[in-house]
Design brief:
Chain A is mainly alpha-helical. Chain A has eleven helices and two strands; from the N terminus they run ααααββααααααα. Chain A has one domain. In chain A, helix 1 packs antiparallel against helix 10, helix 2 (39-55) packs parallel to helix 4 (90-112) and helix 10 packs antiparallel against helix 11 (261-275). Chain C has nine helices and ten strands. In chain C, helix 3 crosses helix 4 (122-134) and helix 3 packs parallel to helix 5. Chain C is globular and about 55 Å long. The chains are: A mainly alpha, B mainly alpha, C alpha/beta.
């Protein structure tokens, strides 16, 4: 019983991280039609920055904040300096984001070396918590809570704020949004920063669970892509649901059939896409 | 073909490489040529069919692994193993193509990535077959007509002749009626349908063709290295070949060749001088994309055209 | 005589909106029919239904007796159907000749050839130039589509539509965006289309349209309101009520 509960908790926690990672990707793709292949690297940068800040003794909270700010800044700069010039040329954008991901991955190797950096959770969360007679690592519970809070905040942002309204308008119909006066360039930069920040936060929170290690970007990027495609482009609810589905599939898959973990992971997505190309909940053109 | 004379001259020049340089450069030459074949195969999809794939490493990798397995585990000779490998890999390409072409755009990209990740995962975990992280080694090179390919020069000429054949075949395909219809589906798929073309079937054929040529590259790869490791199937490998095609100029014949040579050069030289050559590779591509968004070959062409105009 | 086009009870809704409601229409071979109606009447949707790009919710479509209702878009070209688009959808970076060649190639076994050089097939190229000559553009055969004027592109659309010698041609606003002079040219070209080809045309320019039409179908909110020859439709009170004029 403990096994199943532990794995369930792990699944939910991983789902939470994936939610942070993928919602950023979905926002960027939904609004700007850019498949940001640097997203995995941004997650990894978040993890590394948080690890360093925490090790320097500045506390976990500070680590998370700085990780988010760092990735937001990197995202914003990249969007303004590079991606903006390539509007309309999808292949060039793919090249640019891939190129940046290569640069980022190697830069992390230079700055942090080749060994994985374990990250300790904040002291008050490092012990087990007790629920209904079973014990769980309290950090994982916290990650789930954080992800849910983030989902709610994101939802409120999109549905209740003017920025959100502009984003939704842009996702629905960019030419029309421009026509009614929404400033696309400022919006694009904001959204790219937001998306990058979410990825960085995901990495920061993921540190205590996954560690910061070279290759984290290549491990996370396919997962983000699966979640977004599975959930359907343009649907935040879809991303939410798919994050947890993949969290479960991956966790139980690795626990029960480690040799076939990758098959287990990708097979449902292949099946869904093969028979429902718009994803589980998506309506928008991918 | 308009390019015949310069093409033959280039071929002759390349054939002389072993006469003017040592084994290191000859081997580098072989690697470049293999990369050229591989990039050209992906270009059929990316440049001519307009389908961006992030999983093309699957075909090089599958071909390499199948060839290795047939030789090492079943003890088949090259004469049997090579055609079987090409057949098997192309067949898998046909199945993968069928799956991937259920979608388009980002979903297509994602499906190609997913399919190649499944193969990568199998290569890593199915250790009884693939030997996992240790890779498969102990392979030999073929000896067609009794020529010993273990010799670097002989292998280089072998690869060079195959590269020439591949480029001629691909060149012909691209300029043929089928090639024209392929480019048509890239530019105006809707119109092509209403004219009566079977757009899906045309794309699927391109996919199968791309996997076949990719398989050829895989065979040459595994014969060259006499070793295969799961990293050959990684996302990074697919990303590198995609980068070569786009940076060189998708949709041109010379573009992927230029891009492939660039990547191999960077890998071999930069790693000698710069500790982190991946970063250099990434930087070079971002730079190319800013300066010549359509790739080096189209960029160079328009530069030349502008210079001619200025003189006129 | 088999009707060129026979539509019965065609219905299509998008979401909750009925865009095509119980539309029936019959065209004889060689007939020139005009479809008119205010914006949003469902004219382009009707074309989409006939060409197969849109699937109907109910009803049937027969082209020269063959039931095409379930056939995919590409199969309908073989029944003798061709269409042009309101928004020009040519191959911009290719020459005018190449555009027309693509149209010619579509129904030939040659399209499967992956070995020979397309430019060696002189007959195909000559035929393309001939078709371009038919629309007065033979001189620009080797120019790229993106380098010729809008009016010339419209004429290429027409040439492409005629390339396969269709028995039924759908013209979707062939005069849209053209200057007065260009209109006259294209109008004349349409009038010169061989009699074997039945033409179904959507057009807003009433003078031009009325001159062309032998039969007219008036659509409004997806329904056929009036149908008949020029006199009948023009004199009909409902037509005047809904839509007459520019």
């Amino acid at each position: 019983m403990q096994f199943w509960l532990t794995q369930t908790l792990n699944s939910l926690a991983l789902g939470g991280l994936l939610l942070l990672l993928s919602s950023g990707f979905a926002l960027i793709f939904g609004l700007m039609r850019i498949a940001n292949l640097t997203h995995g690297a941004l997650f990894m940068i978040g993890a590394y920055v948080a690890a360093s800040v925490a090790r320097a003794g500045w506390g976990f909270a500070m680590a998370v904040v700085l990780a988010g700010l760092a990735t937001a800044a990197i995202g914003g700069l990249f969007e303004r300096l590079v991606l903006r010039r390539l509007a309309g040329n999808a292949q060039a954008q793919v090249l640019a984001t891939l190129g940046l991901s290569f640069i980022a991955a190697d830069l992390c190797l230079v700055l942090w070396g080749g060994d994985p950096i374990p990250v300790s959770p904040p002291a008050f969360l490092s012990g087990p918590a007790s629920l209904f007679g079973f014990s769980f690592p309290s950090y994982r519970l916290a990650v789930i809570a954080v992800a849910l809070v983030a989902a709610v905040v994101l939802y409120l942002l999109l549905e209740r704020t003017r920025l959100g309204a502009r984003i939704r308008a842009g996702v629905d119909d960019m030419p029309m949004a421009r026509a009614v006066g929404i400033r696309a360039s400022a919006l694009f930069t904001s959204v790219f920063c937001l998306g990058a920040m979410l990825a960085g936060l995901g990495g920061a929170f993921g540190g205590p669970m996954l560690s910061a290690y070279p290759g984290l970007d290549a491990d996370m990027l396919p997962l983000a892509l699966i979640v977004v495609i599975l959930g359907g482009v343009g649907s935040l609810m879809g991303t939410f649901i798919a994050s947890f589905i993949i969290g479960f599939v991956y966790t139980f898959g690795t626990a029960l059939v480690p040799d076939l973990a990758y098959v287990i992971l990708f097979l449902p997505m292949i099946l869904v896409l093969a028979f429902r190309p718009t994803g589980l909940l998506g309506g928008a053109r991918a | 073909m308009k390019a015949t004379i310069p093409g033959l001259l280039l071929l002759a020049a390349l054939a002389l490489l072993p006469a003017v340089s040592g084994e290191y450069y000859v081997n580098l030459g072989s690697q470049m040529l293999i990369a050229v074949i591989f990039a050209s195969s992906l270009n059929l999809l990316v440049g001519y069919a307009g389908l961006t794939s992030l999983g093309h490493a699957a075909y090089l990798g599958l071909s390499a692994y199948i060839a290795a397995w047939l030789a090492l585990r079943l003890g088949l000779g090259h004469a049997m193993a090579a055609p079987l490998t090409l057949l098997a890999t192309t067949a898998i390409g046909g199945i993968f193509g069928w799956i991937a072409l259920r979608a388009s755009g980002l979903s297509f990209l994602m499906l190609t990535l997913a399919l190649s990740q499944v193969v990568w995962g199998l290569a890593y975990r199915w250790t009884s077959v693939t030997n996992g992280d240790n890779g498969l080694s102990g392979l030999t090179r073929p000896a067609p007509f009794g020529i010993d390919m273990e010799n670097s020069n002989a292998y280089y000429w072998f690869v060079l002749s195959i590269t020439a054949v591949v480029l001629v075949v691909v060149g012909r395909l691209v300029n043929s009626p089928f090639g024209a219809s392929l480019r048509g589906t890239r530019d105006q798929a809707r119109r092509m349908s209403s004219l009566g073309y079977n757009v899906w079937a045309i794309r699927w054929c391109a996919f199968v063709g791309a996997s076949f040529v990719g398989a050829v590259a895989g065979l040459l790869y595994v014969y060259f290295h006499k070793y295969v490791h799961p990293s050959v199937l990684s996302v990074t490998a697919s990303a590198e070949v995609l980068l070569s095609v786009i940076a060189g100029g998708a949709g041109t014949l010379a573009g992927p060749a230029v891009g492939a040579v660039l990547v191999v050069l960077l890998k071999n030289y930069a790693s000698g001088y710069v500790e982190r050559w991946n970063m250099l590779l990434g930087a070079v591509f971002v730079f190319i994309v800013l300066v010549m968004p359509h790739g080096i070959v189209p960029g160079a062409r328009s530069l030349l055209a502008r210079l001619k105009e200025k003189r006129a | 005589m088999t009707a060129a086009l026979e539509i019965k009870g065609l219905r299509k809704s998008f979401g909750g909106i009925a865009v095509t409601q119980d539309v029936s229409l019959t065209m004889q071979p060689g007939e020139r029919r005009l479809v008119i109606g205010p914006n949003g009447a469902g004219k382009t949707t009707l074309f989409g239904l006939i060409s197969g790009e849109i699937r109907p919710d109910a009803g049937s479509i027969r082209i020269f007796g063959e039931d095409v209702t379930k056939l995919p878009v590409r199969a309908r070209a073989r029944c003798g159907l061709a269409r042009t688009y309101q928004i020009i959808t040519l191959f911009p970076k290719d020459t005018l000749a190449h555009n027309v060649v693509l149209g010619l190639l579509a129904l030939l076994p040659l399209r499967l050839d992956a070995r020979t050089d397309l430019s060696r097939h002189a007959a195909l190229h000559d035929r393309a130039v001939q078709l371009l000559d038919g629309v007065g553009l033979a001189g620009k055969a080797l120019h790229r589509v993106c380098d010729v004027s809008y009016g010339e592109q419209r004429r290429v659309e027409l040439a492409l539509g005629l390339a396969q010698q269709p028995r039924l041609l759908l013209l979707d606003e062939p005069l849209a965006g053209l200057s007065q002079d260009e209109r006259v040219v294209v109008q004349r070209l349409i009038a010169q289309v061989p009699r074997e080809t039945a033409i179904l045309m959507i057009e807003h320019d009433m003078d031009v349209a009325l001159e062309f039409a032998e039969q007219i179908t008036v659509l409004h909110y997806g329904q056929v309101i009036v149908e008949g020859d020029r006199r009948t439709v023009v004199d009909h009170p409902r037509t005047r009520e809904i839509y007459l004029g520019h």
